[in-house]
Structure formats: C-alpha cells, structure tokens
C-alpha cells in the first residue's frame, strides 16, 4: 500500500533551501547513527558521555551554529531550528545540551561579553572542547527570576558572589558558567570558570524525566571573580531573558522532532502488530488517531517554520516565541500520549522511544518558561493586562 511521510501531507518542507536541507540531513544522520542506538541505555542508566558528544557535535558545527565569528558556523535561524528538530527526535536531553551550550551560554558571551571573553571562550565552546552552563533559575525563583537572591558585591576590583542556582543543565560537567546575580546596580551577568574557588556543582539524581541529561545545583560561597569576568553588555534582567528567548526558539522546533519520532514509531508498530487477523493500522479508531496526530504535527511544524522566517528577518517578538512554545510543546505531549496508546503495554518500555519522549516533554513544558507563564504572556499581548504582576 502507498504511504506518505507525515510531512508530505502538507508539503511542510517545500520552502526550505538547499543549505537548510543539508544541515537537517547531516543532523538527522548523526542522530540516527550515534544517538538512537544508544539513547535507551543512556536514559535508563543516566550515564551519558556529555564531553564526547559535545566534541562530536562541535565537529559537525552544531554548537553556537547561529552565531557569527569566533569559530561559529553563522547559519540562519531556521537552520538552527531544523537542527534542534532532528536532535530532539533523538532525545530532548541532546537538544538541551546543544541549546544550553549555544543559545544560552555562548549567546550570552557573544551578545554581552567583552572581546577578551569572547575570544577566550567562544572558539573552544564551538568545537565542544569547553562546555558551558547558564545559571539563572533558583530553587525559590523559577518563573520570577527578578526575585533572585544570589548576590554579587563589589570589593575593590573584584566581585564576591554568594548564592545558588537550581536545575542547571550541564552544570556538573561545565568548564564555564554564566552566572546571574543581583548587585547594587541591578542584575548583572558573570562569565565564571568552574575551577574558581568557591564554585561547586552538585549533580541532581533520581529524575524521572530528562534522564539522558546532566542537571545540577550550582553553589557559590564567597566566590571571588575579577571585574573582567563581568559581561559588560548585560545591564539588566533583560539580558538573561533575551538569552532565554533564544533557547525557547529552539524548543519550538525541537518539540516537533520529538512528536514526529513518536508518530513515526507508532506508524511502524501499527503496520506490523496484528490483532483480529490483520495489522492494527487498518482499524478505524487507530487511523483516526493517526489523522489527529498528523494534523497536530503538521500544524506545529508549519508554525515553527513560519516563526523561523520571522526570526531570520530579525522581527520576531517574545510573544510570538511564547505562542510557538505554548502550542508546540503541548501538541507534542498530546501526540506522544496518543502514540503510546497505539503501542499498548509495549509503549512503556525503552524498546520504543515514545514513553521516553513523553516524560521528557513534561520537563520541556516547564523549563524555559512554564506553560502557564507563556499563556499569560499571550494573554497580556491580547488584553494589555499583565496578569502575572
């Protein structure tokens, strides 16, 4: 019987150029060859070779790929999004590694750092030789980073930083941390080598989601850094929020990748799983599930590509990014749950990727702005009322 790839139904990729298709193809091949054969083991054991993967991702140009200069590839935003889509089809943890490295840590240095800091760190981070993390969220201040209690006090020509950060991806393997702290002049950012005395990172264990990703608590105890570590271009809370918008953009595409992998896996399973003298793919209810999933997936993909075009024109707004994450992550979770139901009991095992994607997406729904906060951002755009203030 003739079959179509889900994206063929609406010719989703019709306007991609040759370079974008090539970047997507290279990333997909890497994920198929390197990640998918190993991800179930990494997820189950929580042992993932982050440093090895970072060097491999650097070799194919995916780290900080949308930044210019300093060894970065300088691709357009849509190409970066497509790479995120393929990475998250492998696992959300892999996309998080790339996202935190490029869109948070490297972007912060690129946008706000001194020339000395850029030259010191960005080339090493682009190759994966050095790994970065981004310390903004605190245990008691997630959705409201303005309430942070980590402080940086000026003492002579140095700064003394005290406090802690929570849920920090790559925190325990990072070579450099971007640390946001409250000062007498407002929120400021610092580029801190993790070898600095007073810096420590504690691995967070017992996670039931994003198990193939390293997550840590960062602790700063009278950590002294020179003023040269400060990011001079970061003069308010707007700086870290701008970094978060960069990361959220990648999630818009990444969620589509996870959802696509769930749909493809359930389609393949249903074509070979037989009940009542035939494959379950021939049953009407199963086909209705596929129709709903494919429609939701194509809608999310088209939204991602639309926002990619707007970002490539340098016109994208925070409200648009919020709507993209709000729609696409929720849609991906719905697809994962529906796909799992097609596999029945087999769907909860690591033999298939669906339940792993589903549990990962529950974290994606929360990080880089919770689903509820993005709803309120959209609500404010529509009503002019900031309900969260």
Automatic annotation (TrEMBL):
Subcellular locations according to the entry: Mitochondrion matrix
Gene Ontology biological process terms in this record: fatty acid beta-oxidation using acyl-CoA dehydrogenase; fatty-acyl-CoA biosynthetic process
Cofactor field: FAD
Keywords: FAD, Flavoprotein, Mitochondrion, Oxidoreductase, Transit peptide
InterPro entries: Acyl-CoA_Oxase/DH_mid-dom (IPR006091), Acyl-CoA_Oxase/DH_mid-dom_sf (IPR046373), AcylCo_DH-like_C (IPR036250), AcylCo_DH/oxidase_C (IPR009075), AcylCoA_DH/ox_N (IPR013786), AcylCoA_DH/ox_N_sf (IPR037069), AcylCoA_DH/oxidase_NM_dom_sf (IPR009100), Glutaryl-CoA_DH_mitochondrial (IPR052033)
Domain (Acyl-CoA oxidase/dehydrogenase middle) ranges: 133-223
Ranges of residues in domain Acyl-CoA dehydrogenase/oxidase N-terminal: 18-129
GO cellular component: mitochondrial matrix
Boundaries of every Acyl-CoA dehydrogenase/oxidase C-terminal domain copy: 240-382
MF annotations from Gene Ontology: fatty-acyl-CoA binding; flavin adenine dinucleotide binding; glutaryl-CoA dehydrogenase activity
Family: Belongs to the acyl-CoA dehydrogenase family.
This protein's name: Unannotated protein
Provenance organism: freshwater metagenome
């Amino acid at each position: 019987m003739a079959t179509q790839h889900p994206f063929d139904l609406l010719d989703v990729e019709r306007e991609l150029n040759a370079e974008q298709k090539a970047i997507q193809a290279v990333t997909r091949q890497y994920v198929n060859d390197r990640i998918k054969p190993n991800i179930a083991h990494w997820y189950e054991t929580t042992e993932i070779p982050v440093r090895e993967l970072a060097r491999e991702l650097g070799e194919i140009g995916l780290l900080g790929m949308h930044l210019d200069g300093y060894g970065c590839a300088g691709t357009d935003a849509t190409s970066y999004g497509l790479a995120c889509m393929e990475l998250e089809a492998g696992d959300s943890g892999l996309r998080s590694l790339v996202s935190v490295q490029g869109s948070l840590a490297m972007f912060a240095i690129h946008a706000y750092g001194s020339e000395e800091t850029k030259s010191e760190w960005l080339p090493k981070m682009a190759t994966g030789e050095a790994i970065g993390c981004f310390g903004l969220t605190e245990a008691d201040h997630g959705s409201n980073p303005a309430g942070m209690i980590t402080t940086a006090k000026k003492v002579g020509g140095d700064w003394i930083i005290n406090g802690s950060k929570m849920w920090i991806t790559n925190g325990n393997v990072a070579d450099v941390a971007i640390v946001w702290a409250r000062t007498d002049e407002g929120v400021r950012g610092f580029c801190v080598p993790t070898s600095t005395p007073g810096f420590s990172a504690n691995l967070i264990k017992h996670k039931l989601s994003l198990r193939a990703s390293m997550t840590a608590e960062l602790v700063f105890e009278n950590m002294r850094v020179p003023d040269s570590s400060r990011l001079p271009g970061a003069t308010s809370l707007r700086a870290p929020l701008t970094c978060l918008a960069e990361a959220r953009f990648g999630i818009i595409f990444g969620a589509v990748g996870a959802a696509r992998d769930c749909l493809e896996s359930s389609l393949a399973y249903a074509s070979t799983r037989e009940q009542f003298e035939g494959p379950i793919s021939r049953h009407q209810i199963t086909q209705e599930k596929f129709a709903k999933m494919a429609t939701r997936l194509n809608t999310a993909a088209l939204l991602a590509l639309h926002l990619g075009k707007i970002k490539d024109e340098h016109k994208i707004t925070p409200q648009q990014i919020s709507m993209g994450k709000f729609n696409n992550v929720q849609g991906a979770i719905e697809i994962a749950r529906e796909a799992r139901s097609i596999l029945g009991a087999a769907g909860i095992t690591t033999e298939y990727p669906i339940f792993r994607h589903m549990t990962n997406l529950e974290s994606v729904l929360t990080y880089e702005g919770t689903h509820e906060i993005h709803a309120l951002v959209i609500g404010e755009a529509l009503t002019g009322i900031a309900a969260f203030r």
